[in-house]
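Mods, move this if it's the wrong board.
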Amino acid sequence: MKNVHLLMIAMAMFALSGCSVITGIFKAGAVVGIVTVIIVILVIVWIISLLRK
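Not the wrong board. Structure tokens:
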């Protein structure tokens, strides 16, 4: 019975660490997406400013 409890605790630890890894991946993806959108907006503004001159 004690081995079953240890097995359950070990499985819970692996599951929780997997969730933190996935959270980190999504946060990194969100940051990359935001930076990409900002760069695209800046390039569009730069092109418009070149055309107006």
